[in-house]
Structures are given as structure tokens and as C-alpha cells.
Specification:
It is a single chain. It is built from 6 helices and 5 strands. By secondary structure, the chain is an alpha+beta fold. The protein folds into 2 domains: 82 residues, Orthogonal Bundle (Arc Repressor Mutant, subunit A); 52 residues, Dna Ligase, domain 1. Helix 2 crosses helix 4 and helix 3 packs across helix 4. The longest helix has 13 residues. The mean pLDDT is 89.
Amino acid sequence: MNNRFEEAMQKLKVSGVRMTPQRHAILSYLLDSLAHPTADDIYKALEERFPNMSVATIYNNLKLFVEAGLIRELTYGDDSSRFDGDTTEHYHAICETCGVIVDFHYPKLDHVEESASQETGFKVRGHRMEIYGSCAACTVKLH
């Protein structure tokens, strides 16, 4: 079992959240996934193992995990929310053709937050940056 999963289990235990087999499967899937899945993607991946689990159950558990700070919910435009098991500081490149989301790391832009705080008087709690374009596979198809 990976360290992130063990930390997540401990956080849930402290919060008084019981770890059911379904929650275990959803959290494991998310922490192992690099694909930023939707609730429906997770449902499709787990429905064979948990035929009685609904998309609503998955979504409710995802909300619980977001509230516990174990995962991030990514909302881009009108598409379904996607979920990210990586809660470290990182950014996303999003393909406008196929919708794939790829993580990339860049030194945290502290000076942007500081500047925004000074100019607006806001107490800044964070920021989000997305890069839009075509992934390598879609770029090949387009040319």
C-alpha cells in the first residue's frame, strides 16, 4: 500500500469516516490514476467489482474525499468535474481536442499571489493555472 493511501486512511479515521470496501476502491483508483477521471469514469472502472454501487454513491464519496482534503475537484467549463488524487502544488495542460489533462510542475508562483494580495487587499489562499492546446497525439492527427 502506498504512503499517500496510508496518509489518506489516517485522515479519514481521524475524521470519523468509516472505510468501506467501496471507499477503499474509489480512493485507491484515484490515487493510482494519472488520468483525472470523472465520477462516471470511476464508476465504469469499478462497476464489475461493485455492481450495486451507483454513480451517485461514487460522487458522494468523492465529495467526502474533497472535503477531507484527500483529493482535488477540477472544474473546467461545462464539462463534468474531474478528480485529482495528487494534492501537491502542480498545474494542468488540457487538450482542447480530446480533453486529456496532463500534470506539470512549475515552481509555485508565490510572487503572483503576493502581488494579487497587495493590489486587491485579498487574503489569497491559492491560485490555479491551466494551459490549453493540443496534446501530442491530437497534434499529429491535425497535421
